[in-house]
Every structure is written in C-alpha cells, then in structure tokens.
Amino acid sequence: MKPSSDFTLLSSNNMNSLQTVSLEKGLSEDFSIALKDGKQPIENLLINRLIYNQMVFVRKGSGQLSIDDENYGLGIDQLFLFSKGQILSIDPQTVFEGFVVIFGENFWQKNPSSESECRPLIFSGLSSNNMLTLPEITSSELSFLFKCLWEEYKKPGYANKSDVLAAFLKIIMIKIVNMNTVPQKAFDSYDRKLYHKFMDLLNVDSIQSHEVSSYARQMGISMRKLAELSKKYSGKATKDLISSHLTMEAKRLLQFSSMPIKEIAYKLNFSTPDQFSHFFKKNTSVSPQNFRSKLILNLS
C-alpha cells in the first residue's frame, strides 16, 4: 500500500471549545511525496501533531497555514520546513502548486552525514526555520529537484529504490543548507555531533529538564562548551533555546488539550503553578489563563 499523498491531517472538533489535535497518520514506507496542482483546496480546517518531518515547497499559492502558534500566508516561492512534534494546521480553501514531502527516521539512518550536517540547521523545531522565502533562481532549481524526486517515487518498485529516493532528498537538503537564506556555519565534525545531540535531548527532555547543567551533564561537556555551541550554531544562549522549546510545548498543551493549568504546570515539571505562570508570562507577555482564554474567544 502506498503512503498517503497528502498532509494526512484530521479535522478538529467543535470550534466553540478548545481545539483538538490528532497524531499524523503513519506512512507504510516511511516516505511520501505529493504533487500539488493548485486546483484542489483542502476543505476542512485541519490540525495535526506531526510524527514525521515535512517539506512543503510552494511555487505559488493562496491561503494560510500555521505551525504551532505562528501563522503564514501562502504566496510565491516559499519553502516550509516542519519538524516532528510540531502542530500543523491548514485553513480551508488553501491551494498551492508545488510538492509535499514527508519522511521518517529511516532517512537519517540512510544518510548519517545529513543527520549531523543538515538536521540541526533545518529541522530543529525552532520557529525561525519554519518558512524560507526563496529567490527565483533557487526556487526554479528546487522545483526541478522535487520533480525528479516525485517522478522517481512514482516508478514501480525496484531494488534499492528507497536508497535512490534518500539520495535525491539528501541533494535537496544540501541545496537548502547552502542557500543564502539559511545561515550556514562551518563546524568540525565533533562540534556538529555535539550540537545535534543537544537538539535531540532538547526535543525529548525539555519538558523535564529546565537547567543548562542537566544537558551539559548528559552530554559529558562543560556548560561553557554547551553555551559556545549554542551561540555559534543558533545565535542564541543555551537557556534561551531551552525556554523556547518549553514555552512552545506549554502553548501546545494550553491550545490543544483541556488539562487544567495546574496539571500542565506539573506535567512540565514546574514546582508550582505560580512558577509556571511566571515563566510563561515572562516568555509570552501573557498569563497561561489569558493565553487560553484568547484562543477560546477567537474560536467562538
């Protein structure tokens, strides 16, 4: 059975209450690419928590999508990069010409160099990486590469076909990393691996581990070394990266669950609800209760 050729998202429930979110549908082959012709709109408001990484290449389009709490209008020559764990929703009547690529962990296993060199830069789960506006020449080159990948995907199965698809995908990723719109830094192999390990720990442990010292200890390096890697690789302090991931997870729980704020505070490993509220307000300028209330008001 072929994987789904679309976003495979599920519709939300009663919009007068908190929105609900479903897990993305699984792929039988851990990979999918779909050609979008700009003619068929997505009919329902769709909300999904991603279990795969996704690339959405838009040659031209209209409508809106959101990733976590960031909204983006579709236009001309855009590339969206979504990481597993993020929450994606698409407004009704959204249409575009381009491609949707969905892939799982098997890709990284086939291309370990891409995991260390590309993954931290373009699939970090940070909002700064979610959307790139492409120069015309770059968009044309990527359009050609995505089309080659799509045509190869459509061919009947043959020996090592998955390796060929992974090779095409690797070329696309290298092209993206080398674009002027993605700030590429030169790192030796050891530092790349260390930073990648930190990002992996952050995606898994940010709910439980709030302290820089915890991550440095797990990685077997000093806090100073971790701070150096964070600043060099992301331009941000380590504590800011931890807070960013924790804030995003808090927003997801407030927006897409009916858990009381007290329970969310303890789930995110805060000592008290007041401590959680102080942290959330410091990072968003609104209290958890006001954040949730605004969402409910907007959906009414």
Describe this structure in words.
The chain folds into two domains: 10-177, Jelly Rolls (Sandwich); 189-299, Arc Repressor Mutant, subunit A. The protein has helices at residues 105-110, 112-117, 119-122, 136-154, 161-177, 189-205, 212-219, 223-234, 238-256, 261-267, 273-284, 288-299; strands at 10-11, 22-23, 31-37, 46-49, 53-62, 64-67, 70-73, 76-82, 87-90, 95-103, 131-133. Strand 6 (64-67) and strand 7 (70-73) form a beta hairpin. The chain is an alpha+beta fold and 300 residues long. The N and C termini lie far apart (40 Å). Helix 6 (189-205) packs across helix 8 and helix 9 (238-256) packs across helix 11 (273-284). The strands form two sheets. Strands 1, 2, 4, 6, 7 and 9 form a six-stranded mixed sheet that branches. A five-stranded antiparallel sheet has the order 3-10-5-8-11.
